[in-house]
Amino acid sequence: MVWKIAQGLLWVVAVLCLGYCAELTVKAKWSQSQGARELQHSIISTTPSLGDVVGRIEIPRLNLSTVVFEGTDDRVLERGAGHLPGSALPGNRGNIVLAAHRDTFFRPLRSIRVGDQVKIHQPSGDSVYIVKSAWIVDPDQVDVLKPTAEPALTLITCYPFRYIGPAPERFVVRAVLGP
User: CA 152 to CA 130: how far, in whole Å?
Assistant: First the structure.
């Protein structure tokens, strides 16, 4: 009798977990398609608010392409990559800082290489960055977020990529504006 109850509870938990994963997937796909539509119709603010579309990041060699939204809170990062408020906006000088989850939108970063192209698409035009370095830092090592004199792009995600639960480190990619 106890085994039957345990089995029933495990099935309920499994169905709830699958439902939760399905909800996150549907929400992310819907947000990505809405964001892509906004990009096509040039509905981008020069002073974005939390959740607004900022652009699209693309790394062709990795088949990574995702809409970037303003903000880096959990609700934004469920929808796509997030632009760190206060860092430079795409198309401007300074350090553009983008973050995304390692198990969703930035998962392909595990295969990034020096020399890879990173494109930022906006209605006003595209910017192409070239990856110069990738390294691992502690979560409290925030100097990677500091402004830079030259146009730079910093991508951040949790590390290790296969870690289950809150990851103990961060994976950082730095790229500079290409020719």
Answer: 9
